[in-house]
Amino acid sequence: MLGLLTMPVAHKRYPANTAFLAPFETALRHEYPNTGDQIKALLGWYGSGAGPWSGYPFYEDTAAQLLSDYPAREIITIVATGGLTPAQLEGAARYLANDVELWNPADAALLTAPVKQVLLARALQTTDTDKIQRAENAFSG
Question: What's the CA angle centered on 31, arms 119 and 27, to 5 degrees?
Fold first, then answer.
């Protein structure tokens, strides 16, 4: 994925200046001109962490910050279309499980039962209780 992982990053606790994201955005658009491919690349990056979905290294949040520039409906549509790698599915589950209750109701309605099932199934493939609990809270029912 180009040189994204080697570029300098800023900690999410310093959101006042998001100018640090500009090199990532430029590299992402250069490597992946298609918006769908950009989202898939970011989902893969966000899903490549080895630990829990909380208490993770700060650099992992850069992918989430970049994903937040895309409408949730575009991310959900990509998940619903299928064909994602395990890392992309992990990233989608991780990203979409966060603050789902704060979403626009129209976007939240796009999380259909089949999409929720795919995301929950991905989280259940781990023994990490944090991931399982977060996914169950977001995608069950």
Answer: 95
Cβ neighbour number for residue 116 with a 10 Å cutoff? 19
Report d(CA 22, CA 50) in Å as an integer: 26
Please answer whether residues 114 and 80 qualify as being in contact, where contact means their C-beta atoms are separated by less than 8 angstroms: yes
Contact 53, 94 (CB under 8 A): yes
Number of domains in the chain: 1
Give the global pTM: 0.82
Q: Output 110 or 43, whichever has higher pLDDT.
A: 43
Query: Which of 84, 86, 94 is closest to 63 using CA atoms?
Result: 94
Report d(CA 111, CA 116) in Å as an integer: 6
What's the pLDDT tens digit per position in 73-109?
899 999 999 999 999 999 999 999 886 666 777 887 8
Q: Is residue 134 part of a domain?
A: yes
Can you spell out the DSSP letters for 25-81?
HHHHHHH--SHHHHHHHHHHHHT--SS-SSS--GGGHHHHHHHTTS-HHHHHHHHHH
Q: Cβ neighbours of residue 136 under 8 Å, at least 6 residues apart?
A: 120, 123
